[in-house]
Design a protein that fits this description.
Elements lengths: L1 H17 E6 L6 E3 L7 H5 L18 E7 L2 H12 L3 H16 L5 H4 L3 E4 L4 H7 L3 H15 L7 E2 L4 E3 L11 H8 L3 E3 L2 H4 L3 E9 L3 H12 L4 E9 L4
Bound molecules: zinc ion.
Length: 239
C-alpha cells in the first residue's frame, strides 16, 4: 500500500511539472506542456504562413519589411485576441514568434541592424480602453528573443518618439482615398534628433493596406531617419 501511495505521489508531482494547471491550447484544446506557453507547438507550426514579400511594395515610404504570417484562419483569431483579450503577455508571446521568424529569415538584418524599434502607437483613448499597446508588447517579445539568442547589441525600444494625436476610423472600413485622409496628421514625432540618421524598425500587429505604416514611415523619414523598415505579425490580403 505504502509503495503504491509513494508511486502515485511521484507520478502526481511529475505531472505537475509537465503541465501548467488550466493551461490549454485555445486552438486544439490540448493541455499545454510546461515548455509551451499560450499555444501548443503543433498549432504554432501550423499557423498560416505567407509566401513572398510582395506586400513590401505597397509601402512606398519604407525601405523593406517583413510579415510573419498571413491574416487568415487561426492567425485572424490570434490578432483579435491580441487586441481584446486584455492579456498583454499573450502579445509578448506572439512577439517572440515574430522575432524568431524574422531572425530565421533572410531579412534578419531588419532586426539585427536596427538602432531602434518603434511600435505603431495607439491614440491615448484606445490605450486607456485596452490597457496596453499590442504593438509595443510584440516589440518586447522580439527583444526577448534577441536576449535569449545572446545578441550583445540590440535595438532600443522607443515608446515615446511616435505618438498618435488624432483619433481615426478603422482603416478596414474605408475606401482607398478615405484611408489616406483618415490618417492625415494622425501621427506626430517628438525628439526628432533621436531618429536623425538612425535605422528604425516599425512594429505593428497587422498590415492591411500599409497606409498606417506608410504614414508613420513618412513622418520618421521627414524627421531625418536614415532607414525605415517594418515588421508585422500578419499581412492581410483582403483588399
Ligand atoms: Zn494546439
Amino acid at each position: 500500500m505504502e509503495a503504491k501511495r509513494i508511486t502515485k505521489q511521484m507520478i502526481d508531482s511529475f505531472l505537475d511539472t509537465l503541465f501548467i494547471p488550466n493551461g490549454s491550447c485555445p486552438i486544439c484544446k490540448r493541455v499545454l506542456f510546461f515548455t509551451e506557453a499560450f499555444l501548443c507547438s503543433k498549432c504554432v507550426s501550423a499557423l498560416e504562413s505567407i509566401k513572398g514579400d510582395h506586400y513590401v511594395r505597397a509601402v512606398r515610404e519604407t525601405d523593406d519589411g517583413f510579415s510573419a504570417y498571413a491574416y487568415e484562419g487561426n492567425v485572424k483569431n490570434i490578432i483579435h485576441e491580441l487586441k481584446f483579450s486584455r492579456e498583454p503577455e499573450f502579445a509578448v508571446y506572439m512577439g517572440t514568434l515574430l522575432g524568431e521568424q524574422l531572425l530565421n529569415s533572410p531579412k534578419s538584418w531588419l532586426l539585427q541592424e536596427a538602432d531602434m524599434i518603434i511600435p505603431v502607437p495607439l491614440h491615448e483613448k484606445s490605450l486607456q480602453e485596452r490597457g496596453y499597446n499590442q504593438s509595443e508588447k510584440l516589440a518586447e517579445g522580439m527583444l526577448i528573443v534577441m536576449e535569449k539568442r545572446g545578441f550583445s547589441i540590440k535595438p532600443s525600444l522607443e515608446r515615446e518618439i511616435l505618438s498618435k494625436t488624432k483619433e481615426t476610423l478603422h482603416q478596414r472600413d474605408l475606401g482607398r482615398d478615405e484611408r489616406l485622409f483618415n490618417l492625415l496628421g494622425a501621427f506626430e514625432i517628438s525628439a526628432r534628433e533621436k531618429v536623425k540618421d538612425r535605422k528604425v524598425l516599425l512594429v505593428d500587429d497587422v498590415f492591411t493596406t500599409g497606409s498606417t505604416i506608410n504614414v508613420c514611415a513618412k513622418a520618421l523619414k521627414e524627421a531625418g531617419a536614415k532607414n525605415v523598415s517594418f515588421a508585422v505579425l500578419a499581412y492581410s490580403q483582403l483588399h
